[in-house]
């Protein structure tokens, strides 16, 4: 069992719990939360700066998608119809790819290849009881330094900055408003701010629009209250969140698992931590390697363009997993 995140290697598993209150207790924790809300908190005794561990890796078999292109296009149209009816303003439609995982292919080997071929600002690789995850996430869900909390939602994707559309900017602003409201549920009055809005940032193979939302936790609030108020992350659900969640449950045929959940670390002793949105994320389950990809749908969405966005987001990472990078 191990976790590698933020340049730190954690070994010596001491405790595993599903209670997020543990993150306010003591010690260093690796954290994985599935989109469906299953929380795994693993406390490690030995945490030290170290390069990413390597290991054997073999390319997976043929990839299959939970939604094919025609099904995805129909899903986009159903979301647009729901927008026309006033049910939602935006919803993030996702699909899960799966491929047979060869014998001898370890998650450390995949994580090391991601670190070389598609490094993510909030990358994490972990093998914990009952799960194995390798994430190259570029998106910050929650960072905590004492009582100060920061979120950096991503919405808007193009091959280059010139490809970003007005639809991308309006979508980002909608999600920023949702994140502000979520954090406001556990923030000190008047402390929620937006220090940065609609910053174009380059990542391997694409460009994203990123905004920053910051707040100060109200007295008595800790990790359980913070996660309860903000999960699942707004950028991978939609707005209004409750309506978007219900709509997506009807449209997506398989669970998302760690994809669109949260992955990261918490140092309870130092009252610091950072959880990424579980995008650009592989996980091993039931002899299969799984990977999720999706796109935010608004009234201005072109269905084929949204499908192409899911392909763009997946392309480079699938190449890494297949040994092509």
UniProtKB/TrEMBL annotation:
Pfam families for this protein: Chorismate_bind
Biological process, per Gene Ontology: L-tryptophan biosynthetic process
InterPro entries linked to this entry: ADC_synthase (IPR005801), Anth_synth_I-like (IPR019999), Chorismate_C (IPR015890)
Domain (Chorismate-utilising enzyme C-terminal): residue spans on this chain: 69-313
Any one GO MF annotation of this record: 4-amino-4-deoxychorismate synthase activity
PANTHER family named in the record: AMINOBENZOATE/ANTHRANILATE SYNTHASE, AMINODEOXYCHORISMATE SYNTHASE COMPONENT 1
Protein name: Anthranilate synthase component I family protein
């Amino acid at each position: 069992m191990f976790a590698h995140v933020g340049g730190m290697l954690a070994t010596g598993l001491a405790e595993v719990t599903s209670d997020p209150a543990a993150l306010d207790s003591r010690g260093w924790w690796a954290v994985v939360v599935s989109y469906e809300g299953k929380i795994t908190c693993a406390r490690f005794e030995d945490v030290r700066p170290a390069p990413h561990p390597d290991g054997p890796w073999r390319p997976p078999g043929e990839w299959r998608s939970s939604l094919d292109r025609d099904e995805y296009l129909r899903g986009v149209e159903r979301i647009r119809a729901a927008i026309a009816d006033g049910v939602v303003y935006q919803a993030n439609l996702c699909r899960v790819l799966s491929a047979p995982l060869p014998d001898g292919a370890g998650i450390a080997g995949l994580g090391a290849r991601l670190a070389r071929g598609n490094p993510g600002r909030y990358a994490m690789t972990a093998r914990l009881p009952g799960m194995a995850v390798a994430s190259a996430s570029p998106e910050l869900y929650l960072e905590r330094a004492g009582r100060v909390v920061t979120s950096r939602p991503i919405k808007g994707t193009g091959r280059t900055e010139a490809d970003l559309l007005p639809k991308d900017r309006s979508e980002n602003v909608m999600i920023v408003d949702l994140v502000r409201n979520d954090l406001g549920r556990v923030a000190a009055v008047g402390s929620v701010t937006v220090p940065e809005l609609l910053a174009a940032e380059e990542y391997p193979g694409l460009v994203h629009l990123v905004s920053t939302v910051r707040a100060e936790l109200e007295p008595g609030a800790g990790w359980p209250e913070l996660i309860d108020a903000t999960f699942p992350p707004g950028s991978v659900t939609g707005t209004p969140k409750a309506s978007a969640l219900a709509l997506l449950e009807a449209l997506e045929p398989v669970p998302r698992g760690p994809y669109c959940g949260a992955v990261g670390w918490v140092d309870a002793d130092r009252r610091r931590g950072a959880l990424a949105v579980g995008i650009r994320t592989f996980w091993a389950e039931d002899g299969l390697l799984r990977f999720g990809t999706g796109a935010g749908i608004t009234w201005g969405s072109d269905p084929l363009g949204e499908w192409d966005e899911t392909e763009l987001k997946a392309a480079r990472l699938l190449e890494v997993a297949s040994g092509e990078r």
